[in-house]
Amino acid sequence: MHRTPVARTLPDFPWDSLLEAKIRAQAHPDGIVDLSVGTPVDPVAPHIREALLSVADQPGYPTTHGTLALRTAAADALHRRYGVTGIDEAAVLPAIGTKELIAWLPRLLALGPGDTVVIPEFAYPTYEVGALLAGAEVIRSDGVFALGPQRVEMIYLNSPSNPTGRVLGVEHLRKVVEWARERGVIVVSDECYLGLGWDTDPVSLLDPRVCDGVFDGLLAVHSLSKTSNLASYRAGFVTGDSELIGDLLEVRKHAGMMVPLPIQAAAAAALSSDQHEAEQKKRYRHRRDVLRSAVEAAGFRIDHSEAGLYLWATRGEQASDTVAWLAQRGILVAPGHFYGPRGAKHVRIALTATDERIEAAAKRLAA
Ligand SMILES: Cc1ncc(COP(=O)(O)O)c(C=O)c1O
C-alpha cells in the first residue's frame, strides 16, 4: 500500500479502526456521546483570544525560540503552578503543539538506527511513532530496573498517564533520574496532564524534590491543549537541560519549526493567568464524578485514574466487546490496546465532553 519505507514502518492510525463503533454510536436516537478522544469542548478564555488578536496585524516571521514574554510566562507558570524553581527563560522552547515535538524529538536529538527509546507499558502512541520516525528501537517498560544492562538513549515518562491516569510519586521519579544520570540517558517527561490531579498532586520531573534543581539530561514537555483549552491553537513547550534545548533550537530553526506569533501571544496570556485553568479543572472534576459513579454502577472496575482526563476501565472482557457494548448505548470510547498490547481488556473513557453529554452517558449507563 505505502510507497515509502517510513510510511510502512508506522503503525496504522488507531482511531481509523473505530469507524464501525462510531457509526453504531451515531445511530443512537439521542446522538453519540464521543468519549474516544481527549479533545477540549469548552470555550477559550476571552483574555487568550484577545492576546491572539492583539498581534494579528504583524506581518513578519516569528522566531523559533519564541518571544521573551512567552518564555518568561512559561518559566513563571511552572514555578507558580508546580513549584519548579530555577528555569532559565532561555531554556524554554515553544512547540507547535506537543504532539509535533514528541513525534520528532528522537530525530531532532539525532537518535537513529541502533538507538533505543523506552516508553511506558501503556503509552500515548506518538512516543512510539517518534522513535520509529528516527529509525530507533522501542521498548515498553514501566520500570528502569527491569531493563537490565541493555544500552538505552532516551526514556519517556508520562505522569499523570494517558491512558491510565497513574501518577508517579517523587521517589519513583527520583530513582529514574538517578538511574538515567548514571548511564547518560535522556529522560523526557510528558507533563500534559500535570495540572489535573484528582486524588493526588502530580509532581514534575523538574521539581527540586526529584532532580535537586539539576536539569542535566532532563526535558519536561508541557501542552496548553488540555488545561487552557487550546488544542486548536497548537501550543506547547519543552524545557529543562539548557544544552539539549540549545541543540533542539538550532535544528528547529533550520527546519522552520516555529510557532505562529499570534499563538505565541495567546500562549503567553494563557500561561500568565491561572483562573481559567482552575475553572476548567473544576468542570472536569464534576464530569469525572458523574461519569465515574455511572461507569462503576454499570459494573466496570476503574484502575488508576487518580489524575488526568480519562477513566481506565474494564469489565474483564476483551476491549473490543466493551467498545461494542458501549457503542450500542451511543457511547464511543477507545480500546486499551491502542496504548499497548497489555491494554487488551481495558477501555479509555475521556472526560472531555459537555456536561449535557456526560449526563446523557450516565443516564444511558444506568438504563
Ligand atoms: C500524553 C499526551 N501527550 C501529548 C499530547 C499532545 O498534545 P498537543 O499536541 O495537543 O499538545 C497528548 C494529547 O492528547 C497526550 O495525551
Automatic annotation (TrEMBL):
Residues 32-365 form the Aminotransferase class I/classII large domain. It comes from the Bacteria. GO terms for molecular function: pyridoxal phosphate binding; transaminase activity. InterPro entries: Aminotransferase_I/II_large, LL-DAP_aminotransferase, OxyQ, PyrdxlP-dep_Trfase, PyrdxlP-dep_Trfase_major, PyrdxlP-dep_Trfase_small. The keyword Transferase applies. Keywords: Aminotransferase, Transferase. Its cofactor is pyridoxal 5'-phosphate. The keyword Transferase applies. This is Succinyldiaminopimelate transaminase. The gene is dapC.
